[in-house]
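PROTEIN DESIGN WORKSHEET
SECTION A - STRUCTURE
LENGTH: 325
TOKENS:
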């Protein structure tokens, strides 16, 4: 049994297979043992929602069509006296504070940029809220606002002056919530509001520890399982690979340094030499090679490797003893 195993392990293909197995399972084992058994992932616990909405209703004058009050997306500016504004805020966070600021910006274009010449603050409200919500109302007198804009524009005295009216809402309740609503008075004679609704959803995470895994040729394998599955074959193959490597080294054919490239293998050589000269060393073989410039013939003879140089009727022989297996 031992001799059969020795013969099998001395085969080159067996050595190649065991070596390949050690390399593959060694790499997989290293990957498994360097991969953490557990990882921390983010898990969404809940989603916090914060929503702001500006509603508006126009108080009209000098008209027989709409009546005294109108709720619409667009208002004829010539009929509007006042606009009643109400800001509604609702969130899942209970307490916080807020600030509402109305601003008119006076700006003009210079070269390729825009320059703000003045910011006029016509509204400022601050407060605190509970139960996650608040409402704030304000009546905007459009006529007074237009007169104020006209007066400041005249005082600035800049040609091609542009104005923009915005309502800026800032809410602070753990996280910041900003909302900007723009009031537009269109050249067509209509007043309307842009971006009246703002919804902000914030996911709240918590850390969760889960088992880690490896993906090998398309299959997910638990890290603990992978460590066992890959380590056991490696431990089995390793001693066989070491033993096979030792046999490969032991069975390697001996070479003579310096003259091996001149050697020709021929185990069935028949010599017809009148004179045989037995050489004592490899150096003597090299000297004869240099003198004769003839090839070296290698022949296995029982427990010797014979290196022969034939020069006419003389045979020069160097015998190298083969190591026993």
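SECTION B - SEQUENCE
RESIDUE ASSIGNMENT:
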């Amino acid at each position: 049994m031992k001799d059969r195993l020795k013969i099998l392990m001395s085969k080159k293909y067996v050595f190649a297979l065991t070596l390949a197995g050690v390399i593959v399972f060694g790499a997989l084992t290293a990957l498994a043992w360097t991969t953490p058994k557990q990882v921390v992932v983010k898990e969404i616990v809940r989603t916090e929602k914060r929503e702001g909405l500006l509603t508006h209703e126009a108080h009209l004058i000098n008209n027989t069509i709409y009546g005294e009050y109108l709720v619409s997306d667009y208002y004829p500016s010539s009929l509007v006296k006042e606009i009643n504004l109400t800001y509604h805020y609702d969130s899942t966070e209970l307490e916080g504070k807020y600030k509402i600021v109305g601003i008119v910006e006076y700006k003009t274009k210079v070269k390729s940029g825009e320059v703000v010449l003045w910011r006029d603050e016509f509204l400022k409200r601050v407060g605190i809220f509970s139960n996650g919500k608040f409402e704030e109302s304000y009546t905007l007198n459009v006529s007074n606002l237009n007169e104020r804009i006209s007066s400041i524009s005249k005082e600035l005295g800049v040609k091609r002056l542009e104005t923009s009216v915005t309502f800026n809402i800032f809410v602070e309740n753990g996280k910041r919530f900003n909302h900007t609503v723009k009031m537009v008075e269109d050249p067509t004679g209509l007043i309307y509001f842009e971006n009246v609704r703002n919804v902000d959803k914030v996911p709240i995470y918590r850390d969760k520890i889960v088992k880690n895994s490896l993906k090998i040729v398309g299959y997910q394998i638990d890290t603990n399982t992978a460590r066992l599955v890959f380590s056991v074959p490696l431990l089995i193959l390793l001693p066989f690979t070491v033993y096979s490597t030792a046999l490969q080294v032991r069975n390697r054919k001996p070479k003579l340094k310096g003259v091996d490239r001149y050697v020709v293998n021929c185990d069935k050589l028949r010599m017809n030499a009148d004179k045989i000269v037995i050489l004592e060393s490899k150096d003597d073989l090299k000297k004869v090679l240099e003198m004769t410039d003839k090839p070296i013939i290698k022949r296995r003879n029982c427990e010797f490797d014979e290196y022969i140089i034939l020069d006419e009727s003389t045979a020069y022989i160097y015998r190298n003893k083969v190591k026993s297996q």
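SECTION C - NOTES
The chain has three domains: 2-37+212-250, 46-207, 260-321.
Residues 32 and 226 are 6 Å apart (CA to CA).
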